[in-house]
Design brief:
The protein has 237 residues and is mainly alpha-helical. The chain is built from 10 helices and 5 strands, in the order ββααααααααβββαα. The protein folds into 2 domains: 61 residues, no CATH class; 157 residues, no CATH class. Helices cover 54% and strands 10% of the residues. A hairpin with a 2-residue loop joins strand 1 and strand 2. It starts with a strand and ends in a 5-residue tail after the last helix.
């Protein structure tokens, strides 16, 4: 269930909603999930339904916050000009189905192809990795991971180990490794092959936002406050 320690992270009102949803799982669960629940013993089924209902409540609670991140709003020209990615490159990825972008979903529904901030993060990562020879299958997976971190930032203040990075190594074939830098970090600690690429997830997301005209920064409350004060005083402090 959705708990932090021994306490539910849901408000009493949200817990009541989860209880009502658990009594009518067809209203929010897939047919496969309902069939799975039906095959469980009664006590396990109750726990499963209650847990799924609480997850659904959390999803509904977060939806308005994440909407700006996934909302299609940028034209192809805005993406190419902002990120410096050639238009032909993006069109090739889309034509070949090599990147999973929300822009294609909108196009399939007969609308103009518009890109979201999430799409922009994926394109940014894919382009940077493709330039150093990382194959499509690998940079697609890495771009999706970075985009998921972006979702966390758009949901508001998050508690996570500083700072997420993705290390790609090539010891005959490319592999990606997700790490969190909570202190001094040395690549030699990873015992990696000579060929490697390191992506700082926070920097990628912030640079993407800046490229599209947003004023954004990521850090602790103290770091952000210090940066704002420095900008106000011209960095004289």
């Amino acid at each position: 269930m959705a708990k932090r320690g021994t306490h539910s992270i849901l408000t009493p009102e949200e817990q009541a909603l989860a209880k009502r949803l658990a009594q009518n799982p067809d209203a929010f669960m897939t047919a496969e999930a309902c069939a799975f629940a039906a095959a469980l013993a009664e006590d396990k089924r109750d726990d499963f339904l209650r847990g799924m209902a609480e997850v659904e409540v959390i999803k509904r609670k977060s939806a308005p916050l994440i909407q700006p991140y996934v909302e299609p709003r940028f034209t192809l020209s805005a993406i190419t000009e902002g990120l410096g990615v050639p238009e032909v490159t993006i069109r090739n990825w889309l034509t070949r189905g090599q990147l999973d972008l929300g822009a294609e979903t909108a196009r399939a529904k007969g609308k103009w192809r518009l890109f979201s901030l999430r799409d922009a993060v994926i394109i940014h990562v894919a382009f940077q990795l493709s330039r150093v020879g990382v194959p499509v299958a690998v940079f697609h997976d890495v771009a999706q991971k970075v985009a998921r971190f972006g979702e966390m930032f758009f949901k508001g203040p998050v508690g996570m180990v500083r700072r997420p990075i993705v290390v790609l190594t090539n010891g005959g074939e490319w592999q990606s490794h997700l790490h969190h830098d909570s202190g001094p970090f040395r690549l030699t600690d990873l015992d990696i092959p000579p060929a490697a690429v390191v992506l700082n997830v926070e920097q990628v997301i912030v640079r993407t936002l800046h490229a599209l005209g947003f004023d954004a920064m990521v850090g602790t409350a103290a770091e952000i406050d210090a940066a704002l004060r420095a900008s106000e005083t011209g960095g004289d402090e």
